Q: What sequence folds into this?
């Protein structure tokens, strides 16, 4: 990767999360990355208001953002033809990393998903990915958002998520860990790339 | 721009993508190092936040028990436990994340229609109180197997009791 630095200075970043502490934590990470303009929203209603009033460069949004959740908000932003922030990059923060949830985020029009608890490295890698891997937008009757046909082949900084990964201990099997929907999804052939 | 079966595909270069590539940015290692320093400054406030959030969770659960028909109250309790789960590990309280995560699962099954087991929820709240103490900071779940097994057994007991009640 040629460009391995991120310059977040003067970018307006909207952090939409119901927890003030989580917002503070995300803002701290972003400050560490060099960001100096972050705006917080505690609900979808706050977020929509901010998005209609000012230009936002990127939005970090919790999947459980009240009252209707971050995915519904993403869908609303993408579907609103008069919204000047309609193509804003959206990063969904979620603790629910089941494949079905990630697919739902993608189908709502999110650019990327980051797992909670969030670490500085996971957030930085996803921001880099959004920054250096622009995707076309698709405007279809049932979908508006970044092209969903893509594949992650390592993160753009060239570091990837493998470096420094801790060894994992696999615990004893105590029961099924995947829901039937997820198992079905794994067997569905999917087109990538 | 291309059209394909009623879908229009077009390139978008957002301001984010334009601005973030400007010179003067920080490298990955610098950024992560600085972010960690910033997070460290929040650690002193974390214990205060944790006790407030635990208090809020207990109050939310009490309200949900008093007014079981009000789904929003259960939703508040679920959200509050999610917040504890999401922040714990980042701040060095892995055990808080573990217990809160189990509580989220329990409350999620109740949201989906399972029976409300007061004792099971109370034992998760007790475990959370313990996990939030300073002495349990940097303690991982595998270092306290009794507590983890206890929570697992309580959940299993509750599920089998619910099953018996339904029969």
A:
């Amino acid at each position: 990767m040629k460009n391995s630095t991120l310059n977040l200075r003067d970018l307006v970043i909207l952090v939409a999360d119901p927890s003030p502490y989580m917002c503070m934590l995300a803002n701290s990470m972003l400050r560490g990355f060099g960001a100096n303009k972050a705006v917080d929203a505690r609900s979808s209603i706050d977020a929509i208001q901010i998005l209609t009033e000012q230009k936002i460069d990127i939005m970090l949004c919790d999947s459980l953002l009240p009252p209707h959740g971050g995915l519904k908000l993403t869908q609303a932003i993408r579907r609103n033809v008069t919204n000047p922030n309609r193509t804003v990059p959206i990063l969904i923060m979620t603790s629910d990393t089941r494949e079905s949830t990630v697919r739902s985020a993608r189908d709502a029009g999110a650019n990327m998903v980051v797992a909670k608890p969030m670490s500085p490295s996971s957030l930085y890698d996803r921001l880099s990915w959004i920054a250096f891997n622009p995707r076309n937008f698709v405007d279809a009757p049932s979908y508006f958002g970044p092209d969903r046909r893509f594949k992650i082949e390592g993160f753009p900084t060239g570091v990837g998520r493998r470096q420094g990964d801790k060894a994992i201990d696999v615990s004893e099997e105590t029961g099924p860990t995947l829901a039937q929907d997820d198992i079905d999804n794994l067997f569905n052939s999917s087109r990538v790339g | 721009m291309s059209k394909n079966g009623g879908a229009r595909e077009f390139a978008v270069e957002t301001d984010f993508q334009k601005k973030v590539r400007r010179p003067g940015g920080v490298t990955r290692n610098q950024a992560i190092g600085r972010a960690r320093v910033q997070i460290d400054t929040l650690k002193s406030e974390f214990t205060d936040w944790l006790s407030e959030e635990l208090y809020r969770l207990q109050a939310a659960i009490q309200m949900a028990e008093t007014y079981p028909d009000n789904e929003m109250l259960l939703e508040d309790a679920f959200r509050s436990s999610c917040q504890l789960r999401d922040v714990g590990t980042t701040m060095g309280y892995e055990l808080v994340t573990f217990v809160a995560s189990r509580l989220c699962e329990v409350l999620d099954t109740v949201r989906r229609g399972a029976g409300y087991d007061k004792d099971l929820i109370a034992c998760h709240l007790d475990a959370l109180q313990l996990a939030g103490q300073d002495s349990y900071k940097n303690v991982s779940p595998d270092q306290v197997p009794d507590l983890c097994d206890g929570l697992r057994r309580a959940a299993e007991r509750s599920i089998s009791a619910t099953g018996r009640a339904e029969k």
